[in-house]
Amino acid sequence: MSASTADAFDTRAFRCTLGAFATGVAIVAAEGEDGTLVGMTMSSFNAVSLDPPLVLFSVARNALSLPALKAARAYGISVLARNQQELSGRFARAQGEKWAGVALLRGAGGAPLIAEAAAHLECVPHAIHDGGDHEIFIARVLAHRCEPAADPLVFHAGRYRSLSAIAS
């Protein structure tokens, strides 16, 4: 079941294994020093601490927006609703007109937030750590809000999924 050497480690199979863990989908966004907005789709988003309120997300070292995210004064994290699948795909691409026609809100420190998302977190940088081929960002949450009735966008096994309510 496990690889005994690095040579035997199958990265493709590892990705498949990780894909068995269903995740929500979020867009992490910031404003660069030059005023340019950057944003990227994340499934590597997680709670870290309640006191102080901390969350984390990870960014590939080769991501074009990494320098802007590292220099950002604030982050806006928008947890996407089921009807925002198109935005997830758009912000997952490395380039393009990600922000064209996107209704924005501004959070703490001017952080961009996607309107009508299931939840928003307004954050400031707390720490950045080495994470192999990624950098792990830990952000302190200054403000947050959610729409409890929103159906979240879920990603599992390489596809978008939806949750169904269990009748009690």
UniProtKB/TrEMBL annotation:
Q: Which SMART domains match?
A: Flavin_Reduct (SM00903)
Q: Which Gene3D superfamilies match?
A: Electron Transport, Fmn-binding Protein, Chain A
User: What's the EC number here?
Assistant: 1.-.-.-
Question: Residue span of the signal peptide, if any?
Answer: none
InterPro entries found in the cross-reference section: Flavin_Rdtase-like_dom, NADH-dep_flavin_reductase, Split_barrel_FMN-bd
Name the UniProt key words of this record, in alphabetical order. Oxidoreductase
What the record says about family reads: Belongs to the non-flavoprotein flavin reductase family.
Q: What name does the UniProt record give this protein?
A: Flavin reductase family protein
Q: Which organism is it from?
A: Xanthobacter oligotrophicus
